[in-house]
Amino acid sequence: MRLLSLFLITFLFTLSSCQNETKEQSGMKKELFGKMPDGKEVYLYSISNKAGATMNVINYGAIIQSLTMPDKNGKFQDIVLGYDNLEGYLRNNPYFGAIVGRFGNRIGKGQFELDGKAYQLSVNDGPNHLHGGIAGFDKKYWNLEEITVPNGLGVQATYLSPDGEMGYPGNLTIKINIILTDQNELRFEYEAETDQPTILNPTHHAYFNLTGLMDNLILDHKLTIDADYITPTDSGLIPTGELLPVEGTPMDFRQPKLIGEDINMDYVPLKLAKGYDHNWVLNNYEKDVVRKVATLCDSVSGRVMEVYSDQPGIQFYSGNFLNGTIKGKGGVVYKFRSGLCLETQHFPDSPNKPDFPSVVLRPGEVYKQVTSYKFSVK
Ligand code: GLA
């Protein structure tokens, strides 16, 4: 009997120390996820950090296929929308978890002029260009290399966008470090170069739902955006060029506010976009200076996500085009507003708005962007 209990105690002790060990060890696995129509193999890179959080990234679209974070009780759940397999992404992907570009968001009629030359981009949103055109970065095969940084692991995603692709001038090489740190931070470090003058505005398009249960809507999330203005738009969601103060409007997120509080108000910008789908002009913009720009909280799970970025704007999109026709991971149907995006960016239609911060990239210059999503609990 004594011997048996000694054995049991030793067994339980070993088991618990093993569990601690797995939690404190970060790691990376790579497995086949599927094949592109041309036969190219798409891999899933699974990364885990020392805190037990995980991130899956695939070659197609440099998509973050899943991201798990702990709730206030230490329970890890996936907090992003997406698919279980490559077929889902290939069939119909409203940019779930993808890198978007070359130009994230809209360019009126897909037209712009640069150095006196007129360009016509691919149009894919009525008469306008959206998120890089019919086959933007989200539909490209990205080369992924595993990388290690002092406090985390990740992949370096690279892509060469040839001159003329989707109508954009210049061969563009883009490199993005996508890192999961041991402090539960998801970090994007972008760098790009061109051999001809061009325009560039890439972003990341995760749909978050901090409850971890994707049949919940995001209307009970509390959002703060550090912005005094938005860029109001016409009915095609192209900015008019003006800045509109958020003060006294449903667009005011300077203090934490439930997303559902004003979303159905009879207010023209909300009606035009069927909810929130606007660019906020972030305060304290200074090129290459990262500051906190937004905070998202879900009081039930206790999950908090803080967004840090060096960008001048952020598109807050409340999932208004989700309509119950997509069955995502685990067979869950994604309903109207069951995920939200916080896309750091330069303002939509910047190439046609001389007063907006410039999106021009010239040979010899290096485009840079740093954006990170830091997770914690409250
Ligand atoms: C962005 C756009 C939206 C929509 C979504 C994806 O947020 O602003 O209008 O295109 O992407 O559907």
Spell out the blueprint of helices and strands.
Elements: H1 2-24, E1 27-35, E2 41-48, E3 54-58, E4 64-70, E5 76-78, H2 86-91, E6 98-100, E7 106-107, E8 111-114, E9 117-120, E10 129-130, E11 143-149, E12 152-161, E13 172-181, E14 185-194, E15 198-199, E16 203-205, E17 222-225, E18 227-230, E19 244-245, E20 257-258, H3 268-273, E21 277-282, E22 291-297, E23 303-309, E24 313-317, E25 326-327, E26 333-334, E27 341-345, E28 360-361, E29 367-377
Antiparallel strand pairs: 1-2, 2-3, 3-4, 4-5, 6-16, 7-10, 8-9, 11-12, 12-13, 13-14, 14-29, 15-28, 17-20, 17-22, 18-19, 18-21, 21-24, 22-23, 23-29, 24-27, 25-26
The protein binds alpha-D-galactopyranose.
Mean pLDDT, to the nearest integer, reads: 95
**What CATH first level would be assigned?**
Mainly Beta
What kind of assembly state do the chains in view correspond to?
single chain
The shape is globular
How far apart lie the N and C ends? 46 Å
Q: Are there runs of 5+ residues with pLDDT below 50, and where?
A: 8-22
Please, how many domains?
1
Which ions, cofactors or small ligands are bound in this entry? alpha-D-galactopyranose
Largest sheet data: 9 strands, antiparallel
* Side-by-side strand order of the widest sheet: 11-12-13-14-29-23-22-17-20
Number of strands: 29
Helix content percent band: under 10%
CATH structural architecture: Distorted Sandwich
Category from helices, strands and their pairing = mainly beta
Q: Roughly what fraction of the amino acids lie in strands?
A: 35-45%
How many individual helices? 3
CATH topology: Beta-galactosidase, Chain A, domain 5
